[in-house]
Amino acid sequence: xxxxxxxDSSNRIxxxxxxxxxxxxxxxxxxxSLDSGLTLHQIERPVDYIYFPETMLVxxxxxxxxxxxxxxxxxxxxxxxxxxPLLGSxxxxxxTIVQIPGEALRVRTPLLREEFNRGGELQAxxxxxxxxxxxxxxxxxxxxxxxxxxxxxxxxxxxxxxLADSDELPLTQEFIAHMLGTRRAGISQAASMLQxxxxxxxxxxxxxxxxxxxxERAACECYQVVKNQSESMSxxxxxxx
Length: 241
Ligand SMILES: [Zn+2]
Hints:
By secondary structure, this protein is α+β, with helices and mostly antiparallel strands.
């Protein structure tokens, strides 16, 4: 008789694996604690490690030719960071940086790719996640071009809150401006409006979400769309559909 497996990770991809798939992967998982702003993957550079975030949040960034970046997605405990090697590309398609510091489990890319290529539950779970990530990125494209900075800031704070499981987010306005591809003055104005309305409070380096339900009303529809997609994927994973 083998011992029961210890599933001590909050990452939902790992939690959705069969005991057999998890047991094969477990010896190669390494827990790391990563600081805000750290670059995990550079565009067009090899992906050495794939990360399963736990408390850490990661921004997926697209880069313009002048070096400016804009966020096209967020990954937390719902997914993995560094998916391109599983989809046939040796190199990173997007830049990934740590948005909120915290813990993750990481595995060397060739090991996870080998497991992925066996087929089975790991592949099925990761393909479902990829579908949900594509939906998030597609929604973000619409959001970035159609919705106001206030709406986008509210949406972004709600998404980060849901993935970080916390009303207090260690984020500077400069960092948020960078993520949303806008000028810092625009973010300051939007944050002031949300603070004046009593929905958030901010001090240097920290944003507190005071009224999440009110903040949902201030956000564009994108928050609810992405949330629904992510929840329906989680149900599929749990239900094994
Ligand atoms: Zn939007």
